[in-house]
Write a structure and sequence with these properties.
The protein is elongated. The protein has 11 helices and 9 strands. Helices cover 40% and strands 16% of the residues. It is an alpha/beta fold and 221 residues long. It has a 4-stranded mixed beta sheet. Strands 3-2-4 form a 3-stranded parallel beta sheet, sandwiched between helices. Strands 1-5 form a two-stranded antiparallel ribbon. Helix 1 crosses helix 3.
């Protein structure tokens, strides 16, 4: 079954992956002519990260099914909170959609003061995809495998560092988990998203990063 047919089959519940709860659900279903204008797809991270890539991959088939363009807007900051607030404050008319990472909903409220209450203010509609994270290191780091990396980190406690998409992001938590399970000490360097974190690694500014998939073309090259 193609991606387009799967989307059509689910009817998209108004195509709103996350819309504000400021209006009752019946108000959305009552708009029989919907959609009559472009739809905003709001991403809480800079271009190049996993959420951004997944959103842009989905935007074209969504547009084909709905008959309206789906415009991707990046609103990075606060590990997705800025984008979430943008959608919460927007008109609840089905034209503002939030593409969010899971940790924006689950981790942010515990780490960031005044985080949005997504369970109260947004309607979750669909899980659009999942991806695994991979630990990649800069090309000139003197290691050939994971065992070498651990040995180097143990020999130089606190000297190596890892980049992430921000405090509380999945890559950050993976880095902390790695330290806890192996006993190594590496320094966390937060960026405004996975895209900038990967670019920092490619530029040699950081030693390693947990990356969902964007690094694959660089590894193959």
């Amino acid at each position: 079954m193609t991606l387009t047919s799967r989307i059509a089959r689910r009817h998209l519940l108004g195509a709103a992956l996350a819309v504000t709860l400021c209006a009752p659900l019946g108000a959305l279903h009552a708009q029989s002519a919907w959609p009559v204008k472009p739809i905003r797809a709001i991403v809480g991270f800079p271009p190049g990260g996993g959420v951004d890539v997944m959103t842009r991959t989905l935007s074209q088939p969504l547009a084909e099914v709905l008959g309206q363009s789906v415009v991707v807007e990046n609103k990075p900051g606060a590990v997705g909170n800025i984008a979430a607030f943008d959608v919460i404050r927007a008109s609840p008319d089905g034209y503002n959609v939030l593409f969010a990472a899971t940790f924006t909903q689950t981790v942010n409220p515990s780490l960031i003061k005044d985080s949005p209450n997504l369970a109260r203010d947004l309607i979750p509609v669909a899980i659009i995809g999942r991806f695994k994270y991979h630990l990649v290191v800069r090309q000139d780091l003197p290691v050939n495998n994971f065992r070498d990396l651990l040995a180097l980190a143990r020999a130089q406690p606190g000297k190596l560092n890892f980049a992430s998409g921000g405090q509380g992001s999945q890559p950050h938590l993976l880095g902390e988990l790695l330290q806890k399970q192996t006993g190594i000490s590496i320094t966390h360097i937060p960026y405004r998203g996975s895209g900038p974190a990967l670019q920092a690694l490619l530029a040699g500014e950081t030693d390693m990063v947990f990356d969902p998939a964007a690094s694959f073309p660089h590894v193959e090259a």
